[in-house]
Structures are given as C-alpha cells and as structure tokens.
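Objective 1.3, modelling of assemblies. Example input:
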Amino acid sequence: MTAVDETTDPTTTTPANTARAHSHGGGIVPDASRAERPTSYDVADFAVPTGREEEWKFSPLREFAPLFEADGAGAVAAVEVDAPAQVEHRTGTREEVGAGRAFVPGDRAAAAGWAATDVAHLLRVPAEAELDAPVLVTVRGQAGRTTAGHLVIEAGHHAKALVVVSHVGSGAHRGNVEVRVGDGADVTVVTLQEWDADAVHAGQHDVRVGRDAHVRHIAVSLGGKAVRLSTNVSYAGPGGDAQALGVYFADAGQHLEHRQFVDHEATSCRSYVEYKGALQGQGAHAVWIGDVLIRAAAEGTETYELNRNLVLTDGARADSVPNLEIETGEIVGAGHASATGRFDDEQLFYLQARGIPAEEARRLVVRGFFAGIVDRIGIPEISQRLMTTIETELAATPLAAASAEEN
Amino acid sequence: MSTLEIRDLHVTVDEADGSTKEILRGVDLTIASGEVHAVMGPNGSGKSTLAYSIAGHPKYTVTGGSVTLDGEDVLAMSVDERARAGMFLAMQYPVEVPGVTVSNFLRTAKTAIDGEAPKLRTWVKDVKQAMDDLKMDPSFAERNVNEHFSGGEKKRHEILQMELLKPKFAILDETDSGLDVDALKVVSEGVNRALANVNPGVLLITHYTRILRYIKPQFVHVFVDGRVAEQGGPELADALEESGYDRFLARA
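Predicted structure (tokens):
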C-alpha cells in the first residue's frame, strides 16, 4: 500500500577499533569498490544509460535523454557573474581556463557536457583574499535547448569566499562545476536549483579540498522537472574538512536526485554529509546516494553522513542509500544514518495542543526541519527566499496528509 | 468563573494487534475555576488517557459521554480549538520539535491563543520574568523546543507555557515524574503562581503524593480501572500515602 521506501538505521558512530565491522555497506554497490567506477573525458567511454546500471537505476532516463547526446559543441548556457573586485572572472576554452585539473567526468551526462562546452568560466579568488561580499553566478537555461557549462572556482591558499551558483530558466542543462580550494582556504559553494517546472538538469560538482582547508558545499533543489546532482569530494592533503549539505522539496512528478562521493585518501581529514528533503504528491521522487570511501592510507579520518526524508503525502517515493567503505581501522570515527518518515503526529499534536492551527503547525515543523541547513547558507536574503518557496510548496499539500487534526 | 464538566466518559484505544480496549469506563468529574483536583491512581488505571482524551489526542476514541467547557462541547473541537477555548495539557513526555526555538514557539502559541500577536515589549518582559521565576537560563529561549532538554527542563518548559498562555483549565499529567525535590519545588511554585494570577481550574494527575505537599488540592479522586473509585478531600491523599492503592486494587 505504501509507496514510501523506508530505511531507518540507528545513528552509528564507529570507534576506530571496530571500524571494520561496519565496512562495505552490505554490498549496495556492485563494483568491488566505489573507487573503481570509471571516469573519463571521452564521452565514448560511457554508453548511453539503459536504466540497468547501478548509478542510473533510480533516474528517469526519458527526461535525461537529451543530456546524453554527444553531437559536438552545443550551446553553452547563459552565465551572469556578479563578483567583488578581488575576484578574477575569465572565460575561454576549457584549456584556457584550466578546466580538468580537479575534474573528470564520471558519467555520460557529465562527459557529454564536457565535450559540448566550448566556452568555460573561471572564477579565481587570489591567495589570502577574504571576500567581503559573495560571488553570485546565475546560470540561465533556455527553453527547448540543451545547454552545457563548465565553471571553475579556484580559491588560492588561505582565501575566504562564498560563491552562490543559481540555476534558473528552462531547457535541459549539463552543468559541470570544478572547485579547487587551496591550502588553509575557507570556501562555501551554494548551488541553487530554482529551475522552471519543466527544466532538466544533470550536474557534476568535483570539489578538491586543500591541506587544512574548510569547504562547505550546499545544494538546494526546489525547481525543475528532473535534477540529478553528483558531488564528489577529494582531498589534496591532510587536515581538510568538507561538509556537503543539501535540502530538496520534490513535488508531484518531480525527480530530485543527489549523489555524493567523498573519497578519503589523505590523512586526518573530516567529512560531514547532511541532506534533508520533503516530498509530496503523486510521483514525487527523491534519491539520495551517499558514498564514502576511506582508503587504506586515510588514517585519522572522521566522517558522518545523514539523510532524512519527510514524506508528506501518499504517492511519493524516497530512495536513500548510504554506503560506507572503510579500508583502514585507524580512523577517528565513521557513521551514517538514514530515515524516511511521515509527519510526526506527536509533534503536530504538541503544537496544536498549544492552540496552533494544524496548517501552521505543519509549517513550523517543516521550517524547523530545513532551517538547520538553509540558515547555514550565509546570506539571509537567500535563506529567506528559499524558506518562502518551501512554505509556498507546502501550502499546496492537501491537509488530509496530516492526521493529527482529523480527530 | 468557568466550569469543566466530564460526564460518563468512555474512551477506547486501538491496540497494536488490531483489537480495541476500553480504558475509561464512565468518568464523572466537575472542575471549577480556581479548584485543584488531584487524580491519583495506580499505573494503568487510565489517568493519562483521561488527560489526552480531553486534549483530543488522535490515538484515543471517545465512545460515550461528554466533556463540556461552560456548556460548549469540547469533544467536537479540534485539538487546537480546544487549546484556544482555554484548555491546557502539561504533558508527561513533551515532544521535541527540531528547528523551532522556544521563543518562536511561545510567541506563535500565544498569538494563536489570543487571536492576535502579543505586544512585543510586554511579551519579551513577561517571558523573561516567567523564565526567571522558573529558574530557567535566558539561553533557553533560543534552544529548540524540548530538544536535548533534561527531564526537569521539559517540565519547567511546560509550566512556563501554562503561566504564559493563561488557560482556563490546566491538566498536569504526572508533572512531578522525573523531578528531584528542588525542581519539584520550582515547578510547583510555577503552578501556584498561575493559580494565584490566572485562577484556572487544575486537574493534577499523579501517582505519588509528594507533589501534593506543594500544590494543595481541594479534591482528591482515586482512579481505578478507568473510573473514579473514591473521592474526598485532601485527607484522602494522606490515607493513600499511608496505605497505598492496595485496598482499591483488591476491591476492583
């Protein structure tokens, strides 16, 4: 009867000496290791997905089909950049902007996007520069067209920057983003998917974390017909700290997919992944894949990943797959948690028992559910705008979904 | 002056195995403003069911009888309508609401109950005073509702709401459970302040008599097997202190 895919793991934090007992994630990934999945700049190295592949089995291939086409240079999406003066913004061929130093396409869509990008963008924050304003990038898709883009965000050592990449408009878009963070730098990259309702988007974000650097990647997916975002984190040296955070709200017929792969090879690095989503309406589909690999050399690693889904109505489906591979026992900690559930009737009862009407109680609960991540974006106007969008989407939910007020 | 009347209340709950179990079997209670009624009884006698049924928890089904507040049918109201009509339930196990701060929650509740937002300046002052009285640190206001609260903090937070929302009738469900003596005194003082300032009727549900040393009931009802088995004045609580529930259980 229920369309809810429910996986609930107890919160686990694995002490170093028992880490092996927790490894290899129950064979969720058929490759011997996540590390063995192919990457290539050549689109011919990736067959057009059939849906039987592990990494495509959750995706609506009919929607994504235009993104797999590899017929030469396509149109690049319109990109607007609003950046403080310290930031160098350059456009050119992939070679001219130095694309690919920390980016290799990991699937057909990313490789096709790579091939189609004849004009790429570079945003360079000089070493030790601390930006006093965010860098705002707007990527505008065009109705009826398949576009591509490659954006390199490079922060020099000890630089401090906040970059917001906002995706709007329509059409089908392949967006590759390459984030290179220098030693000791502190960088936040926010990617907002506020597409029109008919847009299709596949994006690969490769994030290279320098020695002792702090990186925060925040994905917010609210719009679009089908969005699939793959975020890959790797470390160039020891002591790096990466957070991959995300929120999404899937409506009827909407597919929102977020995949992360955190590859721990350097020592003493930390990673923290937290994605939270709400789903409502017939055919709303959210997918979260959290792959974390702690290689044998990555001693002193500390990692935790978490996905929570709030299913607001019947007919919505959330797939949530954490996968933790641990090849050394000499780590600080590793754990994951995944939970998919409905509105907590007890929470609603508590709020209603204080006089708060059902509708407002639901809004409070949902706002609270997302606030922990949305408030970390660092730009209050954007956080506020996103919360308003979320509340507008929530208001479209028929109240029958909540049971606390039925009595 | 308000009156809460419970007449021949029958309540069932659906068990996990699909069967239905009757928990309340004809409860009669009348509470007027300013009165404190202690409902005492052994575990499983239906005390908490009484509290949650009056508040409208969806888990319980009323199969007979009535609950009226000044003649208004409480059972016909939704949960939030009951609260806005003046009912308040201090829960035994208050629920965590992640991401919602105490301060936002209190203001939202107050606005809902009063039908208009409280005047900002007096409201901030009232909240601060009430928290101070309950020996709650000011930082409490910025914490998420009940999240990582200790048992004592949860109960103070419940009574804080009772003081600020000013209900006509308050049901306190085992508010003493899990409290050490110091916290019990602080929480009891809060209830007594609310009694003095707002004059609500109070239904004090408890298993033990110790909270009755600090909150003095005029009426004591002994609850056994889903109904009131005996009622009297404060002396009945003293008798229970001496002999426990055994004689009631034996008779039932």
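Residues 1-29, 400-407 of chain A have pLDDT under 50 and may be disordered.
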